[in-house]
Write a structure and sequence with these properties.
The chain is mostly helical. Helix content is 90%, strand content 0%.
Length: 78
């Protein structure tokens, strides 16, 4: 396996780990938000807004990580 093959393997593993981490993070945010809304229904709007902002931040980090993995492929491919 050449250097390009290893780069593709690393990018694939990285993309998989990014996906798993993002799914776990957003799932935890959603679970905590639903529990909080269940305890305090009057604060549902504020909790929902905070949940959306936190999920967007996690998605931003995931998007940045995907860009890094794509750059890893592009820069090592010849």
């Amino acid at each position: 396996m050449g250097s390009q093959g290893l780069a593709w393997l690393a990018a694939g593993i990285g993309a998989g780990l990014i996906t798993i981490g993002t799914a776990i993070g957003i799932g935890n945010i959603g679970r905590a938000a639903m529990e909080s809304i269940g305890r305090q229904p009057e604060a549902a709007g504020e909790i929902r807004g905070a949940m959306i902002v936190a999920a967007a931040l996690i998605e931003g980090v995931a998007f940045f990580s995907i860009i890094v993995t794509i750059l890893l492929i592009v820069l090592t491919g010849e």
